[in-house]
């Protein structure tokens, strides 16, 4: 399919998955502290090192279970715990990435993981998104973050076991 270029040239312009470079320039990895998400970050760091890409690691602090709203003060406790997890992950991952020689931008966001990962991936012009496979049985019914990101369909998504 041919898309006209801004200069009026009839040749086709690069599509949304090709930005005129060899290999990915920005790789985004979602992390939640699970073993599969840590595997995804490790895999993404290796890709970023080999491809000389920038690595963006995103931790999304979810609002917590719906029941937290029924217990006074529970929402604040859940938010504090999520922030602590994100801070701990940043402290563990950044020195390792520096040792590997990988440029890392670690971000902590709040909200729905798919919405926030999608927003940040679009913001940083990610060429690829990597996430860990879900370890929760319920996600087979309602869909995991990985499946939902694949359905968004704006970037290649790699699901790491």
UniProtKB/TrEMBL annotation:
Comp. bias regions, Basic and acidic residues: 1-10
Domain (UspA) ranges: 25-161
InterPro entries assigned: Rossmann-like_a/b/a_fold (IPR014729), Universal_stress_UspA (IPR006015), UspA (IPR006016)
Residue ranges, annotated region (Disordered): 1-23
Family classification: Belongs to the universal stress protein A family.
Record protein name field: Universal stress protein
Organism: Modestobacter muralis
